[in-house]
């Protein structure tokens, strides 16, 4: 079953560093266990900017500089317009959000449900796909997705806001690996970027007491509006660890999610925790941090790292949105059309107008 659509589509493909080239590409056809999605909105992620600057991460085949000709963009939502053979999980017309990673389904990690840690990452001949990273993504009019990565979304969620569902899924994954939240736990979120702000909102929806730290007052105030009980500007509070301990009766927090990537943030996150606490690293550090492992051992601290939105966390994020417990609207700050993608990229890169999430529409 299909909906009428053209044979070719507009798309932006990788050129050299910081270069996206407009082109016409054939509309891809869905194969077995795949659907064709008409893209209704795609958000620009920090990973997109890193790809434009440095090339694609975690690639096996690096013969082509920057993988020229690849369509990047992975935070997209849209409408199902065609079904592959034997697909009965979706219908034409379904409104959907997508995950980035379709694991190979055959390696040890995929069989454990850890498909964002697929041992065949980037090996398409083994079945792995990561849309916008190893296969064509969302800076186009249409894209093919494996059904394992597709989730139906409610009619009442606007397309631009729905692009934040994947970001919320990443925050939920961080909460999951920390063991899930028990109402009343104190969680510190370090860094009020999109993932950090979504972590605040998700944690508050699950009953946590939330402390948000960062350097920009307007982002911190947005975090407060999303549910943060306390905000700390680390520029004005030089000893952020001491302030967290003051807010927790001297014991420290139960949980920390580190979303800043700052090299000093890992140790500060450790020192904020009470004994037996847990920390999840959800950001890429630009340089290897020195970690106080002696403190971890003495205090029985547990450290985790996540990549993306694994273990069905997106579905749980959608559940919070459906129930009205997760507000996505405040994070969408700028909107552009697909033809104006270079301007959208510049806005996101320069954080012009205090851009948080820049969304591209057809």
Automatic annotation (TrEMBL):
Claim: Flavoprotein is one of the keywords in the record: no
Does the record's keyword annotation contain Zinc? yes
Cofactors required: Zn(2+)
| Enoyl reductase (ER) domain: residues covered | 15-360
Pfam families documented for this protein: ADH_N, ADH_zinc_N
Q: What molecular functions are annotated in GO for this chain? A: oxidoreductase activity; zinc ion binding
- Alphabetical list of PROSITE patterns matching this protein: ADH_ZINC
Q: What top-level branch of life does the organism fall under?
A: Bacteria
The record's section on InterPro entries has: ADH-like_C, ADH-like_N, ADH_Zn_CS, ER, GroES-like_sf, NAD(P)-bd_dom_sf, Zn_alcohol_dh
Q: Which UniProt keywords are present, listed alphabetically?
A: Metal-binding, Oxidoreductase, Zinc
Under the heading SUPFAM superfamilies, the entry gives:
GroES-like (SSF50129), NAD(P)-binding Rossmann-fold domains (SSF51735)
Which family is this sequence assigned to? Belongs to the zinc-containing alcohol dehydrogenase family.
Name recorded for this polypeptide: Alcohol dehydrogenase
